[in-house]
């Protein structure tokens, strides 16, 4: 019995290959004329003067015109809007004449009903065998979807830009409001004290954050003056509320009993009772009383957890006025505060400051500026009064740059140095 080994060539043929073959056959049956007329883009050919010699059906349908209205009667420029015509004359036509082709130019064509249709235009000059230009072939693509996308993109970009401007305006208004509020927590200006010079400075680390540093100088009567400087824990509106309460409490307590330890004890009681049940709030502060007279000023002060005051002497030395063991104000119902006394003579200056100064980061290793550096800096400055010392410290703070990340308050109190005696008076 013989087995048939040959196979029908039509058996086992891939159905997908067969379908592909059918599709190619249908494609080959398309005539070149049909491909030209029904192409998904517009085609037209113009003479060198722009007269339209040939145009496909697709472009005629976009324009809403008949072939009779266009061919031999209109020029390419007649299809464009006013702006398109201007661009064609000033850019498109000169580039085409120079280079022989222009590609991907965005223009608008004008339809029969007056509508604008965005398109992308590419033109090429066809030349004769001897290189003479004969006609211009132009392809026009529908750019309505692209224009809609670009419009939406521009709208989104504009919205983002408007939002950015609004955010900047809101931030500026917030900064202005914070600056006004910050100034309301500080004296507008320091009073004139007989026999004493005074100056102050406040450095804001960030205009977006409300700091809690504060200071003041005010009269107590009977030739006595009170001063204080301190720092509330935290930043923002809550810290500002504590600052306001602290300032008014210190002023009121000083009028009742000006003893520095008693004043800080009253403040401790107020803060502890106010914030004991909620978010605990506390501060550090130095409070003192000045007794000017006889060309000098006696100083009696007390500290609650605050950096020691610094004294710049007339002989160009500087040292701290120790106030050890002073506790934070407001943490415990009962707190211990440290008192100290000193005298300021002509040319001496007492400097109070918040820890933003000594805790600034300096150098490549971002080390703390520190107490020793501050004492050395004060000793290097000419002992010519509070204003000169504050000016020098303001420059120092500015030099810290981004190493200064906390607000800093400065208050300097000093006895004026005697004026130099004229040489003529010495001779008499």
Helix content: 25-40%
Shape: elongated
Mean pLDDT: 87
Query: Proportion of β residues?
Result: 25-35%
What is the structural class? Answer: alpha+beta
Number of strands: 17
Order of helices and strands: HHEEHHHEEEHEEEHHEEEEEEEEHHEH
Query: Largest beta sheet: what is the strand line-up?
Result: 2-1-5-4-3
Low-confidence spans: 1-5, 424-428
Number of helices: 11
What is the CA-atom radius of gyration, in angstroms? Answer: 44 Å
Main sheet: strands, sense, barrel = 5 strands, antiparallel
**What is the first-to-last residue Cα distance?**
157 Å
Description:
By secondary structure, this protein is α+β, with helices and mostly antiparallel strands. It has helices spanning 15-28, 32-37, 57-63, 67-70, 82-99, 144-184, 237-256, 260-275, 370-380, 386-399, 423-427, and strands at 42-47, 52-55, 101-110, 116-127, 133-142, 197-203, 213-221, 224-232, 283-293, 296-304, 309-312, 318-321, 338-344, 349-353, 361-362, 367-368, 408-414. The protein has eleven helices and 17 strands. It has a five-stranded antiparallel β-sheet, sandwiched between helices. It has a five-stranded antiparallel β-sheet with strand order 6-17-14-11-12. The longest helix has 41 residues, at 144-184. The model is unreliable at 1-5 and 424-428 (pLDDT under 50).
């Amino acid at each position: 019995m013989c087995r048939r080994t040959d196979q029908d060539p039509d058996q086992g043929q891939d159905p997908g290959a067969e379908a592909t073959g059918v599709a190619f056959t249908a494609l080959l049956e398309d005539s070149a004329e049909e491909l030209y007329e029904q192409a998904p883009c517009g085609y037209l050919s113009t003479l060198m003067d722009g007269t339209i010699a040939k145009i496909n059906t697709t472009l005629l349908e976009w324009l809403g015109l008949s072939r009779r209205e266009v061919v031999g009667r209109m020029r390419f420029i007649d299809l464009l809007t006013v702006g398109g015509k201007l661009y064609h004359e000033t850019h498109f036509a000169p580039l085409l004449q120079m280079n022989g082709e222009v590609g991907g130019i965005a223009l608008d064509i004008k339809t029969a009903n007056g509508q604008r249709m965005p398109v992308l235009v590419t033109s090429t000059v066809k030349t004769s065998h001897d290189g003479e230009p004969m006609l211009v072939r132009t392809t026009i693509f529908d750019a309505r979807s692209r224009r809609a996308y670009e419009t939406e993109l521009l709208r989104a970009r504009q919205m983002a830009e408007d939002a950015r401007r609004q955010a900047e305006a809101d931030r500026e208004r917030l900064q202005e409001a914070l600056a006004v509020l910050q100034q309301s927590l500080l004296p507008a200006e320091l009073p004139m004290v007989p026999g004493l010079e005074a100056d102050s400075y406040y450095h804001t680390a960030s205009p977006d954050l409300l700091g809690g540093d504060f200071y003041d100088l005010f009269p107590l009567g009977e030739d006595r003056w009170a001063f204080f400087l301190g720092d509330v824990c935290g930043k923002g509106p809550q810290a500002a509320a504590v600052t306001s309460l602290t300032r008014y409490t210190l002023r009121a307590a000083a009028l009742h009993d000006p003893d520095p330890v008693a004043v800080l004890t009253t403040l401790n009681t107020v803060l502890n009772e106010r914030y004991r049940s909620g978010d605990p709030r506390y501060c550090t502060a130095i409070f003192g009383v000045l007794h000017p007279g006889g060309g000098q000023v006696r100083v009696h002060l007390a500290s609650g957890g605050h950096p020691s005051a610094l004294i710049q002497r007339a002989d160009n030395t500087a040292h701290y006025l120790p106030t050890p063991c002073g506790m934070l104000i407001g943490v415990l119902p009962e707190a211990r505060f440290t008192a100290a006394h000193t005298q300021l003579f002509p040319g001496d200056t007492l400097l109070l400051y918040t820890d933003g100064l000594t805790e600034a980061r300096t150098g490549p290793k971002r080390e703390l500026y520190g107490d020793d550096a501050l004492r050395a800096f004060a000793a290097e400055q000419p002992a010519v009064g509070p204003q000169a010392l504050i000016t020098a410290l303001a420059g120092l703070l500015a030099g810290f740059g981004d190493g200064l990340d906390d607000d800093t308050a400065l208050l300097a109190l000093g006895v004026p140095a005697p004026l130099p005696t004229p040489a003529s008076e010495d001779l008499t």
